[in-house]
Amino acid sequence: MTDEDTARARARAHDDANTAAASAALAKRNAALSAAIEAALRAYDAVPIVRASDPRADARAAIAKATGDA
User: Fold this and answer.
1) pLDDT 10s digits, 39-55
2) Could you tell me which of 38, 11, 35 has the C-alpha nearest to residue 27?
3) In sequence order, which residues have a C-beta less than 8 Å from that of residue 64 and are 6 or more positions away?
4) What is the Cα–Cα distance from 61 to 57, expressed in whole angstroms?
């Protein structure tokens, strides 16, 4: 094995190590993001749905509009 082959092998090993480290970091980040999204969705689902207006008032307004009293 020549010095050039040794240098190539070292560079390849270094690149492989960097790729593995980057992959591990991305996997950790993706797991953290997934956990944060899941927590946000659970929190969102826990909030009760509140109607912005009163259904009876909506009905009265619809009747008034239909009868021309609006």
Assistant:
1) 998 998 888 877 677 77
2) 35
3) 70
4) 6
What pLDDT digit, counting tens, does each position of 9-27 carry?
Answer: 888 888 889 999 999 999 9
> Does residue 43 contact residue 37 with C-beta atoms inside 8 Å?
no
Per the CB < 8 A criterion, the answer to whether 49 and 58 are in contact is no
Concatenating the DSSP letter of every residue in the chain gives --HHHHHHHHHHHHHHHHHHHHHHHHHHHHHHHHHHHHHHHHHHHHSPP--SS-HHHHHHHHHHHHHT--
Closest CA to 60 of 51, 69, 49, 47: 69
Looking at the whole model, is its pTM more than 0.70?
Answer: no
